[in-house]
Amino acid sequence: MTSRSATIFAASIALTPLLQLSEQEILRIYKSMTMLNLLDQILTDCSRDGRISFYLTVEGEEGAVVGSAAGIEPDDLTFGQYRESCGILLYRGCPVNSLVHQCYGTASDTHSKGRQMPVHYSSTEFSSVSISSTLATQVPQAVGAALSYKRARNGRVSVAYFGEGAASMGDVHAAFNMASVLGCPTIFFCRNNGWAISTPTQEQYKGDGIVIRAPSYDMKAIRVDGNDVFAVLTAMKAARKICINESRPVLIEAMSYRLAHHSSTDESTYYRSPHEIHYWRKHDPITRLHRYMENRGIWDAEKEEEWLKQANQLIEEALVEAESTKSLSPEAMFTDVYEKMPPSIEKQMMETKLHLEKYRDKYPMSNYLPWN
Amino acid sequence: MASKGLRVLSTGLQPKCSLSYRGLFQQLAKGGTVTIVSKRSCSYFTYVPEEPPETAGEVRQMNLCQAVNNAMEIALQTDPTAVIFGEDVAFGGVFGATRDLATKFGKDRVFNTPICEHGIAGAGIGVAIAGSTAVIEMQFADYIMPAFDQIINEASRMRYRSGNTFTSAGLTIRAPSGGINHGAIYHSSSPETFFTHMPGIKMVIPRGPIQAKGLLLSCIRENDPCIFFEPKILYRSAVDMVPTEDYMIPLGKAEKIQDGSDLTMVAWGTQIHVLRDVAKLAAEKYGITCDIIDLRTLNPWDMDTVANSVVKTGRLLIAHEAPYTSGFGAEIAASIQQECFGHLKAPIERVTGFDTPGIPHKFEVFYKPDRWRCIEAVRRLIMPKAIERLETSVGYI
Q1: pTM of this prediction?
Q2: CB contact, 8 Å: A129 with chain B?
Q3: ipTM of this model?
Q4: How close, in Å, is residue A338 to chain B by CA atoms?
Q5: A143 vs B: CB within 8 A
């Protein structure tokens, strides 16, 4: 077990009593978490098989991600780092095949038109901002969006997600400071999952995690057990209320553990012990929620089997669909640089079209839609 | 800018406490051991006011800074979502570009931020993502660098990477740029090519007040993120009778401000006014006439206007303050030689700042692409067989 500080930061926001969630709401949360976990496993296999070029999972942190999504409104704008979008989108109702299309970069990839690596989702429909690979750049952007919402008095908040590693970036300090000074309704959600690729927390920060930084910005903050989905949800709801009522940011540090490798290009047993992973696997958020649901009598082995069958089928259908869908024609390489294509890019595009017509047998043209 | 204070030269004369500094300098001069050197050098160009269009209604005298202020005022009046923020903008900004805007529109629309360029840029992108308009200020173009990550990796890429689901369309970044005779290494930069090299963002530089107002309003209303560099040396020295109405000048279009037949000159911003003087000199010395083209937008740039001119004249001179290597002149030269090779009568000339990391304080007078360096380039262009190369370590001048 990593020797992270066990200091419990005194709650500086009053927690409401454990919310009485309906069976329907709990099931929605559970199904989102398990679908997320299953999709992660299957797409990881796809990346190992070479069917998609890359993948990263949120294994072990499903409670933090889905719990946070459940604690906000559907049109609160989320700015993910890269591990959160899948869970947020699934919870908000994004179809599985939409996500799989993005990973495959097909012509049905509405998130990035085949331009981004897998897991770089983007959806205006589900209020989840386009993911970039650069760490923490999204955090001050969430502040700007919240500023805009405050002015518009539309009752929305923004949520900026980042890991404890990304919290070392200057952008996070910039965002904390600006949000506090300008009074922006932003929830800063830090997933402290113990690892930033191979860097454990003791090599990332010297203080008591991320939550301790909040008072220096006059920001309210709380540390929660990120693997307790109800704790995360409760904290999120309370934070949102503060943001809206008091026009100020709130920081939530969700303590969790990255069961996953950093990504498909990482083998984490090179730098951490399998015993540690084994320990945290027994405390993962899905197992805990499952146990709660069984104890409450709203779930059982039969329902579990039925649901997993359903989920597997959905994913399988999405895979078959994505595997048989071509990518957009190479014209998509040149569009959307600006609103209107300038002459210089048009020239490059036309030259490429002629080139590909001449050398079509040298390129994998059958993987792409025809260029008209 | 830091004020270094006055330093007393040691000359053996002991100033009494009651002496004022002026008295001290007079004493030093009398002492004969110290020569009072001349003060800061004069401006190296003459600003010729632009005539307002005939169709313009009411006009008002404005310098470039006031024209920028007027454009922002109109933006705030016409776009209720527009906000202006940056360091010190609330009281008017260090150059006065945002003067009175906070008073007129309120502190929720025109406000200061902490000192944090990457936070300012990131928040500006966030405002744009939320569908509002952000006009953010970098106090000097030299200080845009902390925002580089946000501009390159986020603002420029947002529309493309998200398959047109999110954009930074509502973002405009303004900054004072260019030499000012005493700005030295950290207050004189022309960093335009760091950004012209990035597809997805537009780069605009005006040459005067009428241009600045129209171009800035276009930038603010453009559905793409824009960077607007304002030549700070023109803030006070460039004065036009500027139309008070709401007008825009299109981006991506160069303007030929002078017609000629023998030589094409291309520049932007302050350098346009240097080239006007050079064209006059060229007429006197060599009896030639020049096309002078103001690019106005560097990315995307109007290659057609330049190419059409070069096809006519066969000679191209590009001048800019930014350093030689990888300056925007390199882009123009490479493209024009490809498009117009058969029409060229001489190699394309670039007269630029030198490849030093900044304009050095006391040497700015030598650094700038002034009229003398430009007229030498003209000479080389019209007499290519007679090019003399000085035997310097550089090999050319």
Answers
A1: 0.90
A2: yes
A3: 0.91
A4: 6
A5: yes
Instruction: Tell me the pLDDT tens digit for each residue of A65-117.
Output: 999 999 999 999 999 999 999 999 999 999 999 999 999 999 999 999 999 99
Q: Which chain A residues are within 8 Å of B304, Cβ to Cβ?
A: 343
Q: How many residue pairs bridge chain A and chain B with CB atoms within 8 Å of each other?
A: 161
Which residues of B are known to be catalytic?
117, 187
Interface check for A354 against chain B (CB to CB < 8 A): the answer is no
For B212-246, the pLDDT digits (tens) are 999 999 999 999 999 999 999 999 999 999 999 99
Q: HEC states along chain A?
A: CCCCCCCCCCCCCCCCCCCCCCHHHHHHHHHHHHHHHHHHHHHHHHHHCCCCCCCCCCCCCHHHHHHHHHCCCCCCEEECCCCCHHHHHHHHCCCHHHHHHHHHCCCCCCCCCCCCCCCCCCECCCCECCCCCCCCCHHHHHHHHHHHHHHHCCCCCEEEEEECCHHHCHHHHHHHHHHHHHCCCEEEEEEECCEECCEEHHHCCCCCCCHHHHHHHCCEEEEEECCCHHHHHHHHHHHHHHHHHHCCCEEEEEECCCCCCCCCCCCHHHCCCHHHHHHHHCCCHHHHHHHHHHHCCCCCHHHHHHHHHHHHHHHHHHHHHHHCCCECCHHHHCCCCCCCCCHHHHHHHHHHHHHHHHCHHHCCHHHECCCC
Task: State the nearest Cα–Cα gap between B350 and chain A, in angstroms.
Answer: 22
CB contact under 8 A, A174 and B303: no
Q: What residues contact residue B314 under an 8 Å CB cut-off, 6+ apart?
A: B343, B344, B345, B346
Q: Do A177 and B303 touch (CB under 8 A)?
A: no
Pick A144's closest partner by Cβ from B122, B146, B199.
Answer: B122
- CB proximity under 8 Å: A 35-64 to B: none
Q: Does A110 touch chain B (CB under 8 A)?
A: yes
d(CA B316, CA B318): 7
Structure confidence at residue A284 (pLDDT): 94
For residue B113, list chain A residues with Cβ-Cβ distance below 8 A: 178, 181-182
